[in-house]
Amino acid sequence: MQQPPAGPGTTTMAGANDDAPPVRSAGDAARMVWDESKRLWGIGLPIAVGMVSTYGISSVTQMFVGHLGNLPLAAASIGLSVFATFALGFLLGMGSALETLCGQAYGAGQVAMLGVYLQRSWLILLASALLMSPLFAFAEPLLLLVGQDPDVAREAARFALYILPSVFAMAVNFAAGKFLQAQSRVVVPAWIGLAALLACALLSYLLVVVLGCGMAGAALAYDAAHWVIALAQVAYIVGWCGSDRGGGWSGWSAAAFHDVGAFLRLSLESAVMLCLEIWYLGMITVLTGGLGDAQVAVDSLGICMNVNGWEGMIFIGLNAAVSVRVSNELGSGRPRAAWNAVVVVVGEALLIGLLFMALVLAFRDSFSVIFTSDDALRHAVSRIAGLLAVTMVLNSVQPVVSGVAVGGGWQGLVAYINLGCYYVFGLPLGYLLGYQLNLGVGGIWSGMLAGVALQTLILLAVVWRTDWKAEAAQASSRVQRWGGKAAATADQAKPLLLEA
Asked: CB under 8 Å to 357, separation ≥6 — which residues?
């Protein structure tokens, strides 16, 4: 039987009997794009809604704090874009191991292992959250060490400590989300996210505007919203995703404590890959703090990063969707179908990025009014809006290609690519342009965008040259190695505490 070869040729060769049909004409291509788009957006749109809602919690918090003054806004910007992003990146990355393992196991029919993987991930992520706590406790000396303005560092450290409880909620939330995404159970989490966003807005108004609790009140609303998401998702998993309902939850099991070391390794690879991406743009805010007029520089960049984050949540949805599609198809032994998903998602992501670029350029002088009424700050945002527009395009393709990498289990390779492109090339270039050549915020941002562009081009080349037949075989081997007897044991074992 003829099998699909490496790279793009997989769309034109005959594969396994149950693989996607080959694309031989324009009509075949149109049908493939339509069918794959329905699958991708059926998964990706609810995930994007949930992620936009989660990110909206940060934006709502920043909006309420922003109207308290420039110094509180700078403090919240650093607290959210550096410390909260640090935690988000690491925990979301650790949880992304579930995208590979649960997705491929679900595609191969090893549903019994999903709940065990989830419990292992909860153990690892909660321990990781505990280990990160000192970073929040000692935020002020860390910020001063990297040259941050003392007043901004002091207030940012206070805010970082206020939002520490949300980190433990993220640990619960991200693992639960990946477990649900692998099974395409994405609609209920989207509604949970919307409910949490509404709760955050109402609670922020009560605490900040009505009761005058300032930054502490905004942080309390932020923490509460994250715990709403975490506890609601756990309730949904335990109550409605049991094996008797076709889900992957079979109750609490002692099998969760087995093979933790191997699971931890893949989790760490996933975390390093994603953290190197998320922390990279967060470093722009830290570097900007050493420029003249630090408050305006940090605030203008914080507003742009906030807007960029809104778009980023959409592409995190597509990232998760293509990861689910690729991992499910590889686990099912369908390499051509996996390649089709990659082609469609990259093309559609690029079109969406270009649309957002046009919107930013059209409203460059006015969109910052949402965050501030300070005229000087609004003009500062307008001056760097062009770089935000370029960022919108680059950050459309890059996340979905990373999602392909997670679906295929290539986290270790991508971590090395990220390290070289971001921290060996982009970060030093940004420092050189911003400080040595006196180009300020624009120079720092331009240099770091060059790192993103290089990383995206390399990942596209890797995807193009991938042997998808070999990836499907490797996925089958991984499922057997991680499932097999363990899966059978999990099916037969009685839950320790609770039946789903």
From this structure: 389, 390, 392, 393
